[in-house]
Amino acid sequence: KPRSPLLGAPATRRLRAATAMAVTSPEPPDGTQLLTEGPGAEVPGPRRIQGSVVNQEPRVVHFSDFVTPEEVEHLLKLCEGRWERSMVSKGRVSELHSATKKDSDSHYGEEIVGDTRTSSSVHLEFEESFVVERIAARVAAVTGHTLECVEPLVALRYEPGQFFKMHHDGAMRPATVFVYLTGLEPGSGGETHFPNLELEVQPVACTALMWHNCLENGSADYRVQHEAKPVTEGVKYAMNCFVNVRPQRDASGIVLIPSKGDAEGGDAEQSPADAEEQQPPPEH
């Protein structure tokens, strides 16, 4: 019997998980043209994605088969020799839970190395692999946003002792899909923890979580603040897939925003109060 990725889930949470959603042959909802050839075109993807609602309000969905083992192997090969210390974004791309007013005046989107995040990352370009493009389309399909607004994907590596402290992904990112490329044994740390929702998710290979970062008025929904708990044993590989309010490329596939601009979730040194002067509400 497969173990549940939900840790310490009360009975009500287990019942909620029975509410399912599925996407068959996921394609971007706007009909954007995808790559049809190139590296990774032969790698099989999932034919059907099955999701379970693990929190109703705000809605958090767990996908048991978001990527295939073959896609994971391909992505990790793309990352070989490219790992760099993860950066954190200052400004309004995302907000740190314990941010201060002084730091909130920092330049929008500036990236720094911070002690709130100790993982390694690889920014995956839109055009470098059919698999990367196909997963971006999958993100658009399950979130209901356009492919143009899916940010470049960011692979993550957490080694023992590494973590990402409490943060919010930012009101500029109306939706997040967080993919667990590999799993960890129970008791090995690395859980994704949403304290306001009393929800903690164990890394299980090929699964993913999806949640929305904004309230209806476009401001940040701080109920979905979360943290990556320290890994105590093994290595956790994962991937950030963000939807931005701004197009990242046009419908023909031309990149509008460089992949290292604000492609990675991180700490914006900004408080919840300051965040209320946010950008206009995102279009859905």
Keywords:
284 residues; alpha+beta; Jelly Rolls; 5-stranded antiparallel β-sheet; 12% helix; globular
Structure explained in plain terms:
The chain is of the alpha+beta class and 284 residues long. It has four helices and 16 strands. 12% of the residues lie in helices and 25% in strands. Strands 1-2-3-14-11-16-9-8-4 form a nine-stranded antiparallel sheet. It has a five-stranded antiparallel sheet with strand order 6-10-15-12-13, with no helix packed on it. The C terminus is likely disordered.
Please describe the topology of this protein.
Layout: H1 11-16, E1 20-24, E2 48-55, E3 60-63, H2 69-79, E4 84-85, E5 88-90, E6 95-96, E7 110-112, E8 120-123, H3 130-143, E9 154-158, E10 164-168, E11 175-180, E12 192-194, E13 199-201, E14 207-212, E15 226-228, E16 236-243, H4 272-275
Antiparallel strand pairs: 1-2, 2-3, 3-14, 4-8, 5-7, 6-10, 8-9, 9-16, 10-15, 11-14, 11-16, 12-13, 12-15
Region (Disordered): 20-45, 256-284
GO molecular function: iron ion binding; L-ascorbic acid binding; procollagen-proline 4-dioxygenase activity
Domain Fe2OG dioxygenase: 149-245
Q: Can you tell me the CATH topology?
A: Jelly Rolls
Structural class computed from helices and strand pairing? alpha+beta
What count of helical segments does DSSP give? 4
SSE order, one letter for each helix or strand: HEEEHEEEEEHEEEEEEEEH
What is the level 1 CATH name? Mainly Beta
